């Protein structure tokens, strides 16, 4: 197999070719901002102020800021009041494709009363979205329960949010995506199949049905060793994924395991996961999902 070096690309995308496998940073759609630019206050049009005006009822409390209940499929930006996932976030609903969201509402759990939501809503949410969280490289679940005063306005619903732990997820996830959409490293889920598309100065990962032509199938992720520098992780991404998955997913010479990173800003923010894929060793297209034995069913 050919040996290569680092091919620098624009828009904070780099590609490493080493021993016939590939490692890459955040995939850019050309029109989106990179994940590093995403952290901003929620859109005021969705969650404005503290709402001291007469008659304003906040479903989840004034601290969260939303004046309307969240719905399944809503994408949000989140600004935590304290430690992420351990404090109440201020939220704003944004466009999933262009609003660079921190995450998405994957389900809404309906409670019979406020006490039921308070005591059991979080537990039910965790069960509802367990599969989605487990398939992503660096995500967590946050159950946004209604306030007592806002229970009726929230329609009794606890919003089951899947949010990036260290970096915004950046787009729709799970069943809310459609073939043909571009996915970022932070959005890639186990089982995803996607097609590497070269645009000369950058590349995109186009989500496909695994039955259709694709170059990569996501099989998991690995966490880089503590204190690993970004450039070092970029060079070692293929090895890190190969050590974990190659013996079961690519035991023969026709397939290889590849590693993909997010961008350097996300890396420094704590997104130190390497997303691992399997595909043809020569990077040609294939059809059909690959099983852990390295073969198509």
- Annotation field: number of helices: 4
Uncertain segments are: 1-53
What's the helix-strand series?
EEEEEEHHEEEEEHEHE
Give the C-alpha Rg. Answer: 20 Å
Estimate what percentage of residues fall within beta strands: 25-35%
The end-to-end distance, rounded to whole angstroms, is 27 Å
Largest sheet data: 8 strands, mixed
Helical residue percent? 10-25%
Shape field = elongated
Q: Count the strands?
A: 13
Structural class, by secondary structure, is alpha+beta
- Spatial sequence of strands, sheet with the most strands: 1-2-3-12-13-11-9-10
Q: Which whole number gives the mean pLDDT?
A: 83
Write the layout of secondary structure elements.
Layout: E1 6-8, E2 14-18, E3 21-24, E4 75-80, E5 89-94, E6 103-110, H1 114-128, H2 130-135, E7 139-144, E8 157-164, E9 193-198, E10 203-208, E11 216-223, H3 230-249, E12 255-260, H4 264-269, E13 273-280
Parallel strand pairs: 3-12
Antiparallel strand pairs: 1-2, 2-3, 4-5, 4-6, 6-8, 7-8, 9-10, 9-11, 11-13, 12-13
């Amino acid at each position: 197999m050919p040996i290569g070096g680092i091919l620098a690309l624009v828009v904070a995308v780099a590609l490493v070719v080493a021993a016939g496998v590939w490692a890459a940073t955040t995939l850019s759609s050309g029109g989106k901002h990179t994940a590093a630019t995403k952290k901003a206050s929620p859109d005021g049009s969705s969650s404005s102020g503290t709402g001291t005006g007469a008659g304003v009822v906040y479903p989840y409390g004034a601290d969260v800021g939303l004046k309307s209940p969240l719905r399944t499929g809503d994408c949000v930006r989140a600004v935590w009041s304290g430690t992420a996932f351990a404090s109440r976030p201020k939220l704003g609903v944004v466009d999933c494709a262009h609003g660079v969201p921190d995450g998405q509402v994957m389900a809404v759990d309906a409670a019979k009363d406020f006490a039921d939501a308070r005591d059991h809503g979080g537990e039910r949410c965790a069960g509802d979205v367990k599969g989605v969280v487990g398939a992503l490289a660096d995500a967590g679940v946050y159950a946004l329960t209604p306030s007592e005063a806002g229970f009726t306005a929230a329609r009794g619903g606890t919003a089951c949010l899947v949010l990036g732990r260290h970096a915004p997820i950046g787009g729709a996830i799970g069943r809310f995506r459609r073939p043909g959409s571009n996915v970022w490293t932070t959005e890639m889920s186990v089982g995803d199949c996607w097609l590497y598309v070269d645009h000369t100065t950058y590349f995109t990962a186009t989500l496909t049905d695994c039955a259709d032509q694709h170059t990569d199938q996501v099989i998991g992720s690995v966490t880089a060793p503590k204190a690993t520098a970004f450039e070092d992780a970029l060079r070692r991404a293929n090895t890190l994924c190969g050590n974990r998955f190659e013996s079961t997913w690519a035991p023969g010479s026709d397939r290889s395991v590849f590693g993909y990173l997010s961008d350097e800003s996300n890396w420094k923010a704590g997104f130190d996961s390497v997303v691992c894929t399997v595909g043809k060793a020569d990077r040609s297209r294939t059809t059909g999902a690959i099983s852990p034995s390295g073969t198509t069913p």
